[in-house]
Amino acid sequence: MELREWAIHILSADRIEDKLFDPSHLEDKNPGSPIFWKEPTRPIGMSFSKHTRKNDKLPPFQDHHKSDNRAICLHRFAGHELLAVEIMAFALLAFPDAPRSFRMGVANTLKEEQIHVKLYIAQMERLGLKFGDLPLFKHFWKQTEYLTSPINYISMMSLTLEMANLDFAPHYGASFKRNGDLESYELMKQILSDEISHVKFGMRWIQKLKAHDQDAFELYKESITPHLTLKRGRGFIFQEEPRKKAGIPDKWIEALKNS
Ligand SMILES: [Fe+2]
Ligand SMILES: [Fe+2]
To answer: What is the average pLDDT across 13-20?
Structure first.
């Protein structure tokens, strides 16, 4: 299947199975001309809800002993993963002229995000919740009008949103473990490990795409979308080690830590 065809299939899917469709063979012979997809089709019951102060709040960590509350967290994270799947499909359509290896890298990351959605669905169902039972938000789709180049895309996705998960995944994982939910803990461990490689992908490509005399960190700060700031690339408890593993330069880590 062509990357372009696959991306269109994902963005126009009205069944979760089609959003998570994973073709056995992918190729990129006909990337076509750029398409800037406006908004994804969503399965029934999974359309975007408006944020309110009430529906936006995740249960506090001290309430994670209740499985219902852990399920709410997993539902939210699954929502983020589904958004990541769609934004990666957006990028495949928007940047047909990007290097072939960049596009195949985005496709491979997209496949891992699909697996993440499936794993979160399995865990939330174990805890008695179905994907779509709670509101899902538009989040990342508010940024797509600013995603006009592969550099913008990696700055937003890999180097900000996925970067923040290097803190959130171990933080939530540790809390699930403390509350005896080892399956959810194992899942967060896998998410962290995959996320390190997704951030690494972004780091590698910003180095490749920048001009020879350009500084990657400066370019990143210029390229994040107006709704994002450096601070969005971290959680409450800052983790240095996964960032080092992802190849983030010391100067960048320091600036994030102090943001
Ligand atoms: Fe993910
Ligand atoms: Fe990711």
So the answer is: 96
Query: 258: exposed, middle or buried (C-beta count within 10 Å: 0-12, 13-18, 19+)?
Result: exposed
100: amino acid identity, one letter? R
Instruction: Please tell me the number of the ligand nearest to residue 116's CA.
Output: 1
Distance in angstroms between the alpha carbons of the first and the last residue of the chain: 43
Please, which residues have CB within 8 angstroms of residue 149's CB and are 6 or more apart in sequence? 95, 223
Ligand found nearest the CA of 195:
2
pLDDT band at 228 (very low <50, low <70, confident <90, very high): confident
Distance (angstroms) between ligand 1 centre and the Cα of 223 equals: 22
Q: How far is the CA of 138 from the centre of ligand 2 (A)?
A: 17
Please report which ligand is nearest the Cα atom of 115. 1
191 CA from centroid of ligand 1 (Å): 6
Ligand with smallest separation from the Cα of 77 = 1
Taking the CA of 198 as reference, the closest ligand is 2
- In the numeric block, the tokens 């699909």 are attached to 114
Who contacts 48 (Cβ-Cβ below 8 Å, separation ≥6)? Answer: 42, 136, 137, 138, 141
Distance 183 CA to ligand 2 centre (A): 20
- For 32-50, write each residue's pLDDT tens digit: 999 999 999 999 888 888 8
Phi and psi, residue 152, nearest 5°: -60, -45
pLDDT at 56: 75
Is the model's pLDDT at 170 over the cut of 90?
yes
**What pLDDT sits at residue 141?**
86
pLDDT at 116 over 80: yes
Which pLDDT score, from 0 to 100, does residue 143 have? 85
